[in-house]
## 1
Amino acid sequence: MLAQDHLYGERSGSFREPTGHRWSVGHSIEAVSPAEMRRRYTAIMDTPTV
């Protein structure tokens, strides 16, 4: 999985080594308040899908 930014202020992704081990990595990219997380979640859920 390619690295992605998430609504809760994290960026994460995963990769597999040639030996077969799968690694997940992530880190914080911003501090997000609970109110801002709620706003972002609501905006995503209110967006019509195709």
## 2
Amino acid sequence: MLLYNITISLDNEICEECILWLKTDIIPLIMQTGYFTSFQMWKLLLAEEQENTTYALQFQCENPALLNDYLKKWAPTFQAKIDEKYKDKYVIFRTLLEEVK
């Protein structure tokens, strides 16, 4: 099992709107691609006030071949959608984690 983690740091001015958009529009579309078995969203808790808020979007995937297929076929489309809507208002990076048994 793999965990595809997308960490996104949003400017506070767009945070609520963007999270709602992700939850209602983008995440359902990603899940409909059929590449992922589950999804969770986490908010990073910070002790100090920040100018941005950070979230981790975690998608579980069965194997590397499926994830690579998703990354080639679908990831650029979703990246373009967020760029179109929130360009220069966020920072994003992705990590891949493997379950330790």
